[in-house]
Amino acid sequence: RDSDFIIKSFQGKIISARLHELFCADIKKIDQPRILFIDGILESLGEIDGLLQDLAENKSAACIFARGFSPDIVQTLFHNYKLGRLKVFPAVYPAVSCEEILTFCLKNNIPCYEPKIKNDIRKAGCKDMVEVEKIYFDESACIISSKTGENYQVEVSIPERLSSVYGIIEDRIKFSSAI
């Protein structure tokens, strides 16, 4: 209701990642997506064609995290998203070391495809992805929300009658990686 302040907190893991800039949808939250990481750049749609077909058949939302994506892949994902055929979101994470990504994925039980250990993304399907509660995106970070996360995201809803002070409140709030 307009007269209420609403505060919600979500347990999750904050990582430095963003939706690919060519995926031109204003996505702030994805509910119950399946996720996986790729320690590399996806260059061909053929690399994930089987995975995309499986996700379409199961009508599953998914977020694929990679160091980069070819423009063709992002445009195909966006086109199919607009048509309602797929809910697959390409997220780019910064170039950190292979060991950091593998450690993060192992610690959080998230599948990671990495060429050096010879696991082939072409053979992946829905069953090879892990489902999380939610993913939240802003300009430079995302939160993977799950019961095992060690950080929190806090959402604050301010009544419309106080919207004129929102800018002041926003300037004063500093979000940290943990509460």
Describe this structure in words.
It is built from four helices and eleven strands; from the N terminus they run ββββαβαβαβββββα. It has 179 residues and is of the alpha/beta class. Strands 2, 4, 5, 6, 7 and 8 form a six-stranded mixed sheet that branches. A five-stranded antiparallel sheet has the order 3-9-10-1-11, with no helix packed on it. It is globular, with a radius of gyration of 18 Å. The model is unreliable at 168-179 (pLDDT under 50).
List keywords for this structure.
alpha/beta, single chain, about 180 residues, five-stranded antiparallel β-sheet, disordered C terminus
What proportion of the residues is helical, as a percent range?
Answer: 10-25%
How much of the sequence is in beta strands? 25-35%
Major sheet description: 6 strands, mixed
Which class best fits the helix and strand makeup?
A: alpha/beta
Order of helices and strands: EEEEHEHEHEEEEEH
Provide the residue-averaged pLDDT: 77
pLDDT < 50 stretches: 168-179
